[in-house]
Every structure is written in C-alpha cells, then in structure tokens.
Amino acid sequence: MTSDVRPPTSGAGPGAAPLRPRSLMETLLVAKMEQASLGRSSVLVRMDSTDSTSSMSSTLSSASSDVCRCDDCLLGIADLYTFSAAEEATRRKKPSGWRKLRNIVQWTPFFQTYKKQRYPWVQLAGHQGNFKAGPEQGTILKKLCPKEELCFKVLMKDVLRPYVPEYKGSVTCEDGDCILTTPQDNTVYLQLQDLLGDFTSPCVMDCKIGVRTYLEEELAKAKEKPKLRKDMYEKMIQIDPEAPTEEEHRLKGVTKPRYMVWRETISSTATLGFRIEGIRKSDGKSSKDFKTTKTREQIVQAFRDFTEGFPHAVPKYIQRLKAIKATLEVSHFFSTHEVIGSSLLFVHDKYNASVWLIDFAKTLVLPNGMMIDHASKWIVGNHEDGYLIGISNLIAIFTEMQAKDNSAALLPSPPVTTVVTAASDMSEDDNT
Ligand code: I3P
Fold this sequence. Notes:
Among the domains are: 24-39 and 66-193, no CATH class; 203-215 and 268-410, D-amino Acid Aminotransferase, Chain A, domain 1, CATH 3.30.470.160. The chain is of the alpha+beta class. Mean pLDDT is 75; it is low at 1-19, 39-122, 178-183 and 418-432. It contains 16 helices and eleven strands. D-MYO-inositol-1,4,5-triphosphate binds at residues 213, 235, 256, 260, 263, 341, 362.
C-alpha cells in the first residue's frame, strides 16, 4: 500500500533511492527482519474481520503487537501469524518454492471466486469486492467512486457529519499486500471510519432507504438507449418466473429500471420507503434473503429477530433515528441532493447500538440549485427520493415494537390456563 504516511526509517544513505513513505507491507517486513536479526520470530496477530455489506467493516482485536489487516491475513491464507515453536520448526523445513506455488494457486480465477465467497466482511449489500481492511486501525477501504468521494467531502462540513463514517481521504493500494502484487492492481480507495470498530461481535443490518432505487439519469439513459440485462432477467425469474412479460421472456432480458422498479414493489421499498438488504447476527451468520420482505408484519418479524436478546437496542435505535431525522431536516447537504441507493447501517452489541448513513455512490447534487423535501411523491423530473418516508416508517415501526414490549412487560403474568387466549388476543392486536 502506498497510503502509509509514516516517514521512512533509517537506511537511506547517500546515493540511496529518493525517500518515499514506507508501505504497510514494507513496514511489516522490516519489522520482521529486524526481529529475525534479534533472534525473535515475528508476531503478527490475525484479526477477526466482519463486514457489512454495505459497507462497514472489521472487528478489531485489541492487538498490541503488529497487526496485518490485508485481505489474505484476514482470511488466514497468509503465513504471517504467530507460530508455536513446533509449527515454526515445521514451517522452516518447507521447500522454498512452496510459497511461489501457493501464490500462483491463490491468484487463479477459481481461488479468487473461492476467496470472494469466504470473504470475511460478508457484505450485506452493495457490489462485491469493494471493501478491504484499512491501513490504519479503525479504518476500512472502499473502492473509490468519484461521486461518493464528492459527497463525503461535502458531508465532512455538514451537520450530518456525526451520522456518517468519518472520511479520511483517498489512498492508493497495491492489492494483495501479503502475497503477489501486480502493478495493475493499483486501485484508489476511500479510507473510511470502521463503523464496527468499537463493537464486540456486533449484529449488523443494512436498510436501503427511499421509495426509489434508480437515478433519474439511469431512467433517461434506459429510455434513450434501452439495454437488456440478462443477469437481471435471471434474478427476476429466480424469485418469480411469472414476473417477466411475454416479450421479456422471449428476449431473456429486462432493462435496469424495469428490474429496479420490480424489486421495489416486491419488497417494502415502494410502500414503506425502505427495505432490508441484509442482516448479520452476532454469531457471524448473515442473510440477504429479504428480497420479498414486504409487509409491515414481515419487517417487524425481521427486526425482532435482529434485536432479540439485546433489549437496549430498540430504544437506542429510536433515539438515534430521531436525531438523524431532525438533522436531515436542517442539513444543507440533504436538501440539495437526490439520495438514491443509500443505506442506514444499524449496529448493536451487548452494550451499545447506533445507526449511520452509508453508501453515497448514487447520491447526486440536484441540478440548477433545485431543492427537494424527500417526502413528496416522485414524478419524473422532480428528483424526490422518499428518503424521509423511509426514516419516518422506521421510527414508527421501532416505536410500535417498543410500545408492545413495554406493555407486555407491564402485563401481570396470566394464569397458565389463560395463556393461549391471551396470546391469541395479542396476536390479533399485532395484526392491526
Ligand atoms: C441490485 C441492486 C443494486 C444495484 C444492482 C442490482 O439488484 O438493486 O442496488 O446496484 O445493479 O443488480 P439485487 O439487489 O436484486 O441483486 P446500483 O444501486 O449500484 O445500481 P447493477 O447490477 O447494475 O450494479
């Protein structure tokens, strides 16, 4: 990585190459060599990493020694961890060529696919492979999208700043710090605050906000030059073989806006102004199986599953959502941007719970000084996105859940014989 800004250490004598910041990998290697020359083996602590799909991040162990956070160390395929004396002895006997071979194998398409599937950040939403561990503790790297970078730059000066991940600039990285590096892999990333950094075994939920998930410009492009997407047709028939029209079946393709509108209507996006994209529980199990989670009851059920065993989470979420809503209402950034495909990331653990706004790749400044209220009905050309409809419904649903929990806690325990009747009364209430 070339993002590390620590000054180079000694060794640059006269005639040496010009000084440049030492990369993380170089720093680790130098440390390893220095320790080896002192007769000690290098201690690199492997860290557990989680991810959110959407976006945010790795859970850090409170490591005091050097920590390598590259994908491969996180995956456990780099040999830079602490070894027992016996392991160390066996390891040293390995033929020198084995590492080369391993690198070749790891860079085959098969292994890359395998690696993607096992990627410990288990993205809950968004495009696969966009994230990696950051060079500094408490940060993650997200592939740079210029529109998103622009948003972060403005957001860092807006009242919304406390509710978005801290933006720490962009960095250039060589992929595969711990293994083969090819110069073509140089990619620019946004360095962002790791939102999960302060949590222990967190539960994470990504909710995409707004009644619309495609940009007006995507719609205009599709109208001008319709492009059929076979992949979207396939995704559509996987859920509902009856969904495509006869024509779409014949062409085996659908346009992107057509697919996106369909996705909005089979989920809660069109009706509630948000949908669940993915949930990861504290045991590390994650699910993205929410494409048809549509009704209020289904949402409540999913939120109950998500917060089960963490009674402090719901009130904290309500408080934070209310603060977010109040801040959105006075934010200059918010009134001047069409916010599409952006998510709220819900994170809680045993002690804490919080929510952040994330993903701004499809958040665009409105044309000609236009302003929107984010709650009016969308008609083509007015750029309304329904963001506040989503937030208001989230607050209402969590508040209802809390009210039910509170009244259930206040109810005297019914005698055993009346439990069934009481329970059925309750469920009737639930359905109203
Ligand atoms: C994807 C989802 C993404 C969208 C992506 C869709 O559908 O709607 O938000 O990316 O479009 O395929 P699904 O969730 O059903 O898999 P953008 O928001 O970035 O447009 P894409 O395939 O063109 O990236």
